[in-house]
Amino acid sequence: MGYALEGVTVLAVEGGASGPFCSRLLGDLGADVVKVEPPGVGDVNRHWDTVVYGESAAHAWLDRNKRSLELDLKQEAGRDLFLELAERADVVTQNAAPGAVERLGVGYEAVREVNPGIVYLHISGYGRSGPYSDRKAYDMIMQGETGLMAMNGVPESMAKIPLSICDINAAMYGALGVLTALFHRERTGEGQELDVTMFGGVLSWLGYFPFKYWYNDEIPERVGTSHHLLTPYGPYEAADGEQVIFAVLSAAHWETFCRDVIERPGLETDPRFVDNESRVENRETLETRIAEAFAGRPRDEWTARLQAAGIPWGNVNELEEVLAHPQAEHLDAIREIPYRNGSLKFVDHPVDFGAVDTRREPMPDLGEHTEAVLREVGLGDAEIRRLHEAGVVSSD
């Protein structure tokens, strides 16, 4: 099978996580992603640790299915070469500091002059205009700015979501935007400029919380592993010290849970717990009673009862249990490909397409493809040597 984005070329001026994850998603789908990196340094994400054969875990996660081009955009020759590459490209993605690509002469207007059909994506923290447009943004900063940190954790302490959730959000919206723009160009011939912000992306993920504030003056409290909107919904400790997590979402499940699972008949008709809204209002009392019940039996007995009652449940797994999960094995979610003198494990693209495949190639060494990319635009040995000598390009 071929790739959905086979024949699509992406120039990625990127660093950190949001831009690289966006372009990696496009690379997964078969696009030829050329990662433009500063000579001798590369993407900052290459330097965060050395756990994967001397390379960083972030680089292994973010940069597979790409080619690496070391190109100094601060030099005029580097800018000119970038524009020559852009003339042949379909997409440019960038998440550089605010205003950087414009100052370097490789912004949308400069690229559009040589390629009117270009799809040009900007990913930024706050956008390219407005009162916060000149601010740099990183994931934890955005978790604070967007309210995620204030609503996450336990009453006495906030908590950061351990994943780079704001970067991932912007990257996924960016990839969706690029695919939409390519589809539009396929129909109309028109290229376009796109903006995705981490701030706006996370706002769109706040779900029902804005509505509860606008229409009921509710500010979300930090409820730890409980659910803001529903209860019982969360993990409980069994008699053997193991955790089981379950969710009661309907009146029928609530009745079955009380009668058949915890064997507390009458609890379902208690006015304090008769419906979900009442249960949330009396959360502390209810969850204490459920915790007391769960402390009386081992986990396996509770999971058998929940399964028999048709109530959704699961285990609270550590990372090693997740990576060895039977369903992960069934889905073939953990892949392994040759890399250097060994092999590289990775989590595969989660969409299982019926008619196309996804690319599975390891992350590139810094400048690994510089000469190949230069030759594709017609440069010969002498020109490539001159660019190397001037420090415009490198092949570390």
- Average pLDDT rating: 97
Return the structural class.
alpha/beta
CATH topology of the largest domain: Rossmann fold
CATH arch. level architecture of the largest domain = 3-Layer(aba) Sandwich
Sheet with the most strands, sense and barrel status: 7 strands, mixed
CATH homology superfamily name of the largest domain: Crotonobetainyl-coa:carnitine coa-transferase, domain 1
Question: What is the number of independent domains?
Answer: 2
Termini Cα gap:
34 Å
Radius of gyration over alpha carbons?
A: 26 Å
- Strand line-up across the major sheet: 8-5-4-1-2-3-14
Question: Could you say which overall geometry the principal axes of the C-alpha atoms support?
Answer: elongated
The amount of helix comes to 25-40%
Which spans of ≥5 residues are poorly predicted at pLDDT below 50?
Answer: none
How many β-strand runs? 14
Q: Kindly estimate the percentage of residues that lie in beta strands according to DSSP.
A: 15-25%
Query: How would you name the oligomeric state of the polypeptide chains in this document?
Result: single chain
Query: Mind telling me the CATH class of the largest domain?
Result: Alpha Beta
Per DSSP, the total helix count is 18
Brief description of this entry?
The protein is of the alpha/beta class. Helix content is 40%, strand content 16%.
Q: What does it look like?
A:
This protein folds into two domains: 9-205 and 353-394, Rossmann fold (3-Layer(aba) Sandwich), CATH 3.40.50.10540; 233-316, formyl-coa transferase, domain 3 (2-Layer Sandwich). The longest helix is centred in the middle third of the chain and has 24 residues, at 165-188. The mean pLDDT is 97. The radius of gyration is 26 Å and the shape is elongated. The strands form four sheets. The chain has a seven-stranded mixed sheet with strand order 8-5-4-1-2-3-14, sandwiched between helices. Strands 9-10-11 form a three-stranded antiparallel sheet, with helices on one face. A two-stranded antiparallel sheet has the order 6-7. The chain has 18 helices and 14 strands. α1 (18-28) packs across α8 and α11 crosses α14 (299-309). By secondary structure, the chain is of the alpha/beta class.
